[in-house]
Write a structure and sequence with these properties.
The protein is α/β, with parallel strands linked by helices. The chain contains eight helices and twelve strands. It is 40% helix and 21% strand. The strands form three sheets. Strands 2-1-3-4-5 form a five-stranded parallel β-sheet, sandwiched between helices. A hairpin with a 2-residue loop joins strand 8 and strand 9.
């Protein structure tokens, strides 16, 4: 699966330049010039990273960043602030608001892609390939095997896909609807309570021998892989 980037930028020529370079490097890109629409897309599209211009329509990039950080579903979403504001005070403000990186215009598209890759390696290590690991749970995506603390875990196909989605986004809260889209697909009709059934099955499988439950239920929001675990790529 290609990592998905949400690009929030109102300069159409710059959008095409960034989109071209990201697409060439294997990324999927969703774009909008509008701050309010960016918040909607961040929830609906579930991007792996946001590139966010400071000066955009309807809602400033700073405010978009602030709201993304406040919402449980997007609180851990990596954000690169992209702006012509190069003053130190502006960079500090952007970082203190919640941006993970800050790139000033003009910039090299190659450098931006490199920063995207570096940030994903640091904050979304599952997207770099290899085995997925979090809190003692290790998934070999090629061999379709899962262990916890070295003990094999038997999972059905749906539970495997569900766990993989959580491992790829540790700490991020997903609603039942978002999990249905990501795991079952948007073209398949499945009732939301089906998610609860498979969450119970997944918990039963990975929490054997009274091990701590690493799947967190967030009331009125959904589920998340406990952020207390240490997510990284193994092997």
């Amino acid at each position: 699966m290609r990592p998905k980037i949400l690009l929030v930028e109102d300069d159409s020529s710059l959008v095409e330049l960034i989109r071209y370079n990201l697409d060439r490097e294997g990324f999927s890109v969703v774009t909008t010039p509008d701050g309010e629409e960016a918040l909607v897309l961040a929830e609906e599209e579930q991007p792996d990273l946001v590139i966010l211009d400071w000066m955009i329509a309807n809602l400033s990039g700073i405010e978009v960043c602030r709201r993304l950080r406040r919402a449980p579903e997007t609180a851990s979403l990596p954000i690169i602030m992209l702006t012509a504001r190069a003053e130190e005070t502006d960079r500090i403000r952007g970082l203190e608001t919640g941006a993970d990186d800050y790139v000033t215009k003009p910039f090299s598209p190659r450098e931006l892609v490199a920063r995207v890759r570096a940030l994903l390696r640091r904050l979304r290590p599952a997207l770099s390939g290899g085995h997925l690991e979090h809190g003692g749970v290790v998934m070999d995506t090629s061999a379709h095997k899962v262990t916890r603390d070295g003990v094999p875990v038997q999972l059905g196909p749906t539970e495997f896909r569900l766990l993989r989605h959580f491992l790829e986004h540790p700490g991020r809260v997903f609603s039942r609807e978002q999990l249905l889209d990501a795991v079952w697909g948007r073209d398949v009709y499945v009732e939301q309570r089906t998610v609860d059934v498979h969450i119970r099955r997944l918990r039963k499988a990975i929490n054997q021998d009274n091990l701590p439950d690493i799947i967190r239920t967030v009331r009125s929001a959904g589920y998340a892989l406990d952020a207390d675990g240490s997510a990284r790529v193994a092997g």
